[in-house]
User: Which sequence fits this backbone?
């Protein structure tokens, strides 16, 4: 069924010349290429920008309005010069939340966001935000009007007072946090009609059941459905559950090279290779383009207490990664040619939880894509992870 009202976050992957730009820099509106046009059942709006910037769009009620926030755009000219629509009664602009600019369309009739997209010129680096609004019922508009949850800043995870390696529970239960990558407005890699977000959610659900059957006491997932969850929020969910370990699940795609096979990543400021650095940067970039500011999180995470806590967790993380490679190899046989790599993935930055990111394959590889969609292969991969978690937990218990 077609979605008649969409509110939340929209983003675009920037490529070519625009990839080198600072996505947090100030853009300007190009009035000559911008406009608002009435259609038979709604409004089409285009806003030309001097460069691509993160943005988000949502509806608010009482009064009815569509809000577009940019990070950030300088409205130097009066946007009153834009062609006016009978359905858009007012147009206002100015500063929004810290670091954001806000454009507000005051509506004369209820309309929902049918589509929104940011198109970039790979040569010039300029961009156009295109929004299509369509008439909806008053009830549907009111039901969908809300500030988007996905862009609220989550507090950075705090370090335990003693810098301990465990998360503070006083019981012997084994709690695992599973993080199926991407979701919602961020589908991740896309190949052959498959989205990385969907594949990882399916795998995480099956892995959760396998872990529970294998003796894990509790499994918490950072998302249970197809929705956007920011990288800092994923870490916070794991910490709130007092998880003993965090496993982030991905199946990315690489534009260059012929990477194939399973890889287990741990956190490092220096990536093992260029491809690893690209993957980590891409994940952070998708959060930034969805309107989530990671800079404050990095500033808070880089405190002395957190560095101390992370140092105490590092050996436990390395042992977890080693068990993951062993467990997966035991069930799947051949893995990536370098199955143990490091990179600066933000989702691995919990200071007191051993965390690994597993690339289950690369959707840019037809071989890997076939495996990722094969129920038997997925089942064996899940069993390999269960074997690894079981072995790691026993190893940790023996070291007490």
Assistant:
């Amino acid at each position: 069924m077609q979605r008649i009202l969409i509110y939340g976050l929209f983003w675009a992957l920037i490529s070519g010349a625009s990839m080198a730009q600072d996505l947090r820099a100030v853009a300007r509106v190009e009035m000559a290429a911008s406009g608002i046009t009435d259609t038979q059942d709604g409004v089409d709006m285009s806003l030309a920008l001097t460069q691509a910037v993160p943005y988000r769009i949502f509806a608010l009620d009482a009064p009815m309005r569509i809000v577009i926030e940019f990070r950030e755009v300088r409205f130097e000219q009066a946007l009153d010069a834009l062609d006016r629509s009978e359905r858009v009664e007012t147009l206002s602009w100015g500063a929004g939340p810290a670091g954001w600019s806000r454009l507000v369309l005051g509506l004369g009739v209820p309309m929902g966001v049918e589509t929104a997209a940011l198109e970039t010129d790979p040569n010039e680096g300029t961009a156009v935000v295109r929004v299509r609004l369509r008439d909806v019922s008053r009830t549907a508009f009111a039901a969908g009007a809300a500030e988007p949850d996905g862009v609220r800043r989550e507090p950075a995870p705090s370090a335990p007072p003693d810098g301990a390696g465990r998360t503070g529970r006083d019981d012997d239960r084994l709690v695992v946090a599973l993080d199926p990558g991407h979701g919602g407005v961020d589908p991740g890699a896309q190949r052959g009609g498959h989205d990385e977000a969907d594949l990882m959610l399916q795998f995480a659900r099956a892995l959760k059941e396998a872990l529970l059957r294998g003796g894990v006491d509790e499994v918490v997932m950072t998302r249970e459905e197809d929705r956007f969850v920011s990288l800092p929020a994923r870490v916070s969910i794991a910490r709130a559950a007092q998880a003993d370990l965090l496993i982030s699940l991905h199946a990315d795609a690489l534009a260059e090279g012929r990477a194939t096979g399973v890889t287990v990543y741990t956190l490092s400021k220096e990536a093992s290779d260029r491809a690893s650095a690209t993957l980590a940067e891409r994940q952070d970039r998708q959060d930034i383009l969805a309107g989530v500011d990671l800079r404050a999180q990095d500033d808070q995470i880089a405190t002395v207490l957190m560095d101390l806590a992370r140092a105490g967790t590092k050996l436990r993380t390395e042992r977890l990664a080693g068990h993951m490679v062993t467990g997966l190899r035991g069930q799947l046989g051949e893995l990536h040619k370098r199955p143990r790599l490091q990179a600066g993935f933000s989702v691995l930055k919990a200071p007191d939880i051993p965390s690994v990111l597993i690339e289950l394959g690369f959707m840019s590889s037809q071989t890997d894509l076939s495996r990722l969609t094969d129920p038997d292969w997925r089942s064996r991969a899940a069993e390999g992870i269960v074997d690894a978690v079981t072995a790691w937990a026993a190893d940790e218990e023996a070291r007490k």
